[in-house]
Amino acid sequence: MEPCDIPVRSWVRILFGTFKNNITYVLSVKDSSVETLVVRQSLPYYSDTHSPMDGRSLFDVELAREHGFEVTLSTNDQGHPVAVGDRSEYHFGCSRISFPKKWVKVAGVPSPDEVTWFAVASVDPSLVDRTLTRFSTRWWQEGDTGRICSGEFASQLARIVAMDLQCESVTVHVLTDSSSDDLGSLEISVHDFKLEFPIGASIKVIAGLDCGFQGMVISRRDDMFLLQGSDQQVEVPGIFLASYISPTTYASRADDQVRYDPLANENRLQPGDLVRVISGPHKDLCGTLHYYSGRELLVTPSVIQPKSTADLGDKGKSKAEEPDVTRGDSDVHEDSDLIQISVCMDDAIVIPPNTLQFSKERGYDVTVGDRVRVAHGPAVGVEGPVRTVDTIARRLTVLSEDGPWVSVRTHCFHTTLMTF
């Protein structure tokens, strides 16, 4: 899509500057610029030691005034409140900022994490809802059940029998209490259908802080679901859930792994997958899959060097000889300010997670001081040195990059050491 085709009331991704890689909401489009709403990573009344945990927050008029900032209030043409303070203009608590058209790119389907603050601020609720639905539909499966949201069969339970996600439609079979009353099938928009996750259903969390968590639904309150995992419970919004699909079992032999093409069936992709770029300008870069849209993958570069299939069995290689994941034909390096990169699906493969191995003679193949990365569960992505190894309890205690020690079950870790 050309810069001149940027639609109003859409999402765009910033390509350059302070807000690089941020998702913003388009308010208006001018000849050479785009007016957007941005959730700021810093606000004038927050110090570095008192800023929100994720570095973002909505502008709070009362809090700003408590810190001595002069704030004036007015309304825009639509009657929505506008706050002006510290030489900035805020709508719905988001900062209004203008960017050159060449600095932005229309975002296909942002992840729920990227639009959460806009949902909290009530910025265009209908767009937020449609965005969340578009994101979640890639995990919908034939046989999933849900409720029809509009039309003649509104509130009626139905089962998916066919999907056409490119056209954003599903064919559903309407379920009735009477087995003799068959209402047949009908085609509806994905935005008119909402999945149901009954008590006892096996699910996977596809977005949010608990992304990757797998468990069973044990209770529900409105649209919040309480999930029971192997050793803990989490509460997650329904839009972040998908029916659980048993993970692919990877063969342990190197030749079997070489022949396996994880991206051959794109429906198997999941946020949090470890990806290696095998061709193109970012060849040899590894990272975590953030989200994908069409044939485009958005990958967060990682400092972990997973074992390639060529390295299997090469036990004598030293850490110094291991290739850096950020090397290759690209200009991406560990100390780069690049947060995520865009990669064509055809240029990447999913790396099977190599978790810790156990033997009666040696215990787990990890020692105190090794740097590891959590591959699954609520602490997914945590990286740091091992402090203790508890073989009996099957747990490691690890110092995360943010400081606190965390205790995680051993099956959640990659075995590959991090390189420097």
UniProtKB/TrEMBL annotation:
It comes from Pisolithus microcarpus 441. This is KOW domain-containing protein. InterPro entries: KOW. Residues 5-32, 141-166, 196-223, 268-295, 365-392 form the KOW domain. It comes from the Eukaryota. Residues 308-332 are annotated as: Disordered. Residues 312-332 have a biased composition (Basic and acidic residues).
